[in-house]
Amino acid sequence: MTLNRITSRRAKELVREGWDQRSEIYRPLGAAKDRTKHTDRDYRAWLAPIMKQVPRGGHALDLGCGCGLPTSKLLARRFDAVGVDISDVQIARARKLVPNGRFQRSDMTQLRYPPGSFEVIVSLYAIIHVPLKEQRPLFRRIFRWVTPGGHFLAILGSGRLKALEKGWLGSDSWMYWDHADANTYQRWLEEAGFIVEERKHIPEAGSGGHEMFRLKRPLEAHRARGK
């Protein structure tokens, strides 16, 4: 398989197949951390500033929710939470593991929601599996879905990477990554209209790490540059 010739459709099929096969390896039932070695405490810390600002009962969207642990579960304790993932297996697990959440199997780039549908949108380690050319338009849609004054939390790439891995997590499946560097992401997010409230590098053994962005849509909505 040639990386530079892979189509967007095929890339998404590989991501779906990879997660279908390795969902329980990446996040075993009862495990206190995932394969990135981040614990539930880490996820709570990333979400905490938003949780403190948004009243209970608001609407939250988890893009690339995986099996629902821990992000969708944390969101569903406080909000009317919807999780979306491309993997059938991940969604089936999420429905069992987070019964008070709502879950949808879908390609996040194909989602359409009315403007201002969510006070909180979260996407952690997920957009990095979306073909890069589809990410910038996705950020513009996410901006529209967030209520004025609402929040978007994302963990994205730190350095530019486009990669395929055969035998991912010891399986016979492939996995696909495609992400920009952190400065490019900040530019795209600001062009979409977001205010960057926090940017933090997350170091990880064996890789260049990732970048966390905690963002806010201004109360006075304005037309994003580049539309």
TrEMBL record:
EC number: 2.1.1.-
Biochemical pathway: Phospholipid metabolism; Lipid metabolism
Keyword set includes Cell membrane: no
The keyword Transferase is assigned to this record: yes
Keywords, in A-Z order: Methyltransferase, Transferase
Record field: catalytic activity: phosphoethanolamine + S-adenosyl-L-methionine = N-methylethanolamine phosphate + S-adenosyl-L-homocysteine + H(+)
Residues of the Methyltransferase domain: 61-150
GO MF annotation: an example: phosphoethanolamine N-methyltransferase activity
InterPro entries: Methyltransf_25 (IPR041698), SAM-dependent_MTases_sf (IPR029063)
Gene3D superfamilies: Vaccinia Virus protein VP39 (3.40.50.150)
Record GO biological process: methylation
Signal peptide, first to last residue: none
Protein's name in the database: Methyltransferase type 11
